[in-house]
Specification:
single chain, 516 residues, alpha+beta, 7-stranded antiparallel beta sheet, 15 helices, globular
C-alpha cells in the first residue's frame, strides 16, 4: 500500500511538471509561421500590381537573398518560440506558457473546452507524434495547440478532458512517452459508426464546395497581375497584326478553350484537395460525444461533446444542387458569424446524399427535418421588386436622355432588370421556416441553399425590427442572436414574430434556471 501511495504521489508531482514539445515540433511551427505569413500578406502582395512591381524592381539574385533572409529570421524566431514553450496538465485545466518577445501564460479549464482535435501530419508519423488542439467558445483560432507531443499522451489528455477519465495522475504518465508507436491516430473511431465517406463522395464534395471560387480568385489575380507584361510581350512580337479573319476566329476559340480547360483544372484541384483533407472520413457516435477521423497528409481526429453543440447547418452549393450533394456543419460557440480563411476548422460531415440528411436525428436527438416549411410573406418580394424596378427605370431614362440613344437601347437594361427580378423571386421562395417542438428550422439561399436548425433555449438575444413598410402591413424581421452568430427570419406577421420571440426568451430563461 505504501509503495502504491508513493507511486501515485510521484505521478501527481510529475503531472504538475512543465512539459516541453518534441524537437520535431520545430518543423510544424516553422511551416505554420510560413503559412500564416503568406495568408496575411497575400492580398497586400496582390493589390494594385504590387507583385509585378517587386519583380521589376528586384532581380533573381536579390529576390533569392531576400527569401533566404526571411527564412533565417523565421527559423531563429521559431527556435526561440519553441524553447520558451511549456505546458502542463492540472486537475481541471491545461496551462500553457508561450511567446517570442513577450511571454504569455494561458490557463484553460476543461469545462470550457468545446472541441478536442488530434492531428498527425505525415512528417509526425515516423516519430508517433501528434498535434493536440483545444477549442473554446468565442475563439477565432484554436486557443491551445500543442504540436509535437506523444500520441498516447494526447489520447490520455483527450479522455481526461471529455470526462472519460477522472484520474489526473493518469494524464501525464512518464511511461506513455515510451509506449510502442502505432504510426497513426487510429484506423477509425470507436463506437457506433454513423457515416463513412467513400472517395467518390469526397471527390463530389470537392467539386461542389465553395473553395473552387477561392481557387478561381487566386488564379484570376495571378493572370491579372501579369497580364500587362504579357500584353507588352505580344505587342513587341507584332505577328498578330498580320492575322486574317479565320486566324482570329481560331485564336478566340483557342482562348475560350483555354478558359474552359482552366476551370476544369480548378474543379479537379478542388476535388483532389477535398480527398486529401477528408480521406477515409468516418463519423462515430460515442454516447455523449461525436468523433470524426479523416485526412491523408494530416490525419485529424475531432471530438465534440453533444452538450456543446449549438446548432446544425445543412448546406448545398449551386453545383451541389446539380449533383444532389450536401454537407453538414456542426455549429458551436463562435464570436464570428462567418467562417474566415485561416480560422479554426469547422466540424464538417462531407459528401452527403439527400437520403443521408436523416442523420441529423442521430447527431442531435429529436432534430428531424420537417416535411414542410412556411414561406415568409410576399411583402419581401414586393418591396424589393418595387425598389429595384423604380431605380432601374429611373437610371435607364436618365441614360437615354443624356446619351441621346433611341428607345431600342433601353431593351438591354430591361432584360437585365427581368433577370434581377427573377433572382429576387427565387430568393423569396427559398426563405422559409418551421418550428418543431423547441427547434427552429430556417432555410435560405439563392442558387445554393442552407437549412439551419437550433434549439430555442440557445437564443441569447431577440430583436424585432420593422421598416416603415412593415409597420403599415403588420410585418417584422425576427433577428435571433445565437452563440454561433445571427439568424434572421424576415417578413413575418408581427403576431408570429412576437410569439416566436417570446417562446425563445422563455426557453432560454427556463434552460438557464435548469442549468443553475
Amino acid at each position: 500500500m505504501a509503495d502504491g501511495a508513493e507511486q501515485n504521489s510521484s505521478r501527481s508531482e510529475h503531472a504538475l511538471d512543465w512539459q516541453r514539445l518534441a524537437p520535431m515540433a520545430l518543423l510544424f511551427l516553422l511551416l505554420s509561421a510560413l503559412q500564416k505569413f503568406v495568408r496575411e500578406n497575400l492580398f497586400i502582395f496582390a493589390g494594385a500590381g504590387f507583385g509585378v512591381a517587386v519583380f521589376d524592381f528586384l532581380d533573381a539574385w536579390k529576390l533569392g537573398l531576400l527569401a533566404v533572409a526571411l527564412l533565417l529570421m523565421g527559423v531563429v524566431g521559431t527556435m526561440i518560440y519553441h524553447r520558451r514553450f511549456r505546458f502542463r496538465i492540472e486537475d481541471d485545466a491545461v496551462r500553457v506558457r508561450r511567446g517570442l518577445l513577450e511571454k504569455k501564460e494561458l490557463r484553460v479549464r476543461f469545462a470550457r473546452v468545446q472541441s478536442v482535435q488530434i492531428g498527425q501530419p505525415f512528417y509526425f508519423k515516423p516519430f508517433d507524434l501528434v498535434r493536440f488542439t483545444l477549442e473554446t467558445p468565442g475563439g477565432q483560432e484554436s486557443e491551445v495547440e500543442l504540436p509535437g507531443i506523444p500520441r498516447p499522451l494526447a489520447e490520455e489528455m483527450r479522455d481526461r478532458i471529455v470526462g472519460l477519465k477522472s484520474d489526473a495522475s493518469a494524464v501525464i504518465d512518464p511511461d506513455l512517452a515510451g509506449s510502442e508507436p502505432s504510426g497513426q491516430i487510429n484506423s477509425g473511431p470507436a463506437g457506433d459508426t454513423l457515416y463513412k465517406a467513400s472517395t467518390w463522395r469526397l471527390f463530389r464534395h470537392g467539386l461542389s464546395s465553395n473553395q473552387i471560387w477561392l481557387l478561381a480568385g487566386l488564379a484570376a489575380w495571378f493572370f491579372g497581375s501579369f497580364s500587362e507584361r504579357f500584353g507588352d510581350w505580344v505587342d513587341a512580337q507584332g505577328w498578330f497584326l498580320d492575322l486574317d479573319a479565320s486566324a482570329w476566329e481560331f485564336l478566340w476559340l483557342f482562348v475560350i478553350g483555354l478558359v474552359i480547360a482552366g476551370l476544369g483544372l480548378l474543379l479537379l484541384l478542388s476535388a483532389l484537395l477535398s480527398i486529401i483533407r477528408f480521406h477515409g472520413f468516418t463519423l462515430a457516435d460515442q454516447g455523449d460525444r461525436l468523433v470524426s477521423i479523416g485526412g491523408l497528409l494530416d490525419q485529424r481526429e475531432q471530438t465534440v461533446k453533444r452538450e456543446k453543440i449549438t446548432g446544425l447547418t445543412l448546406k448545398q452549393s449551386a453545383l451541389g444542387r446539380l449533383m444532389s450533394c450536401w454537407h453538414i456543419v456542426i455549429r458551436q460557440t463562435s464570436n464570428v458569424e462567418q467562417e474566415m480563411a485561416g480560422q479554426k476548422k469547422s466540424f464538417i460531415v462531407p459528401g452527403l446524399n439527400h437520403d443521408d440528411l436523416a442523420m441529423t436525428g442521430d447527431l442531435v436527438s429529436g432534430w428531424q427535418i420537417p416535411g414542410q416549411l412556411q414561406p415568409i410573406e410576399r411583402g419581401f418580394r414586393a418591396v424589393y421588386w418595387t425598389r429595384v424596378t423604380a431605380l432601374a427605370v429611373l437610371a435607364t431614362g436618365v441614360w437615354l436622355e443624356l446619351s441621346g440613344q433611341s428607345m431600342v437601347f433601353g431593351l438591354v437594361p430591361l432584360i437585365a432588370l427581368s433577370l434581377v427580378l427573377a433572382a429576387i423571386h427565387v430568393r423569396w421562395r427559398h426563405w422559409s421556416w418551421s418550428l418543431e417542438a423547441r427547434q427552429l428550422w430556417v432555410r435560405r439561399g439563392f442558387l445554393g441553399q442552407s437549412l439551419e436548425v437550433f434549439d430555442l433555449d440557445r437564443v441569447q438575444q431577440v430583436q424585432i425590427r420593422r421598416s416603415r413598410y412593415q409597420r403599415r402591413h403588420d410585418l417584422a424581421n425576427l433577428v435571433l442572436v445565437l452563440p454561433q452568430g445571427l439568424v434572421t427570419v424576415p417578413y413575418l406577421p408581427i403576431a408570429v414574430a412576437t410569439q416566436l420571440a417570446n417562446q425563445a426568451i422563455h426557453a432560454a430563461e427556463t434552460a438557464t434556471l435548469h442549468r443553475v
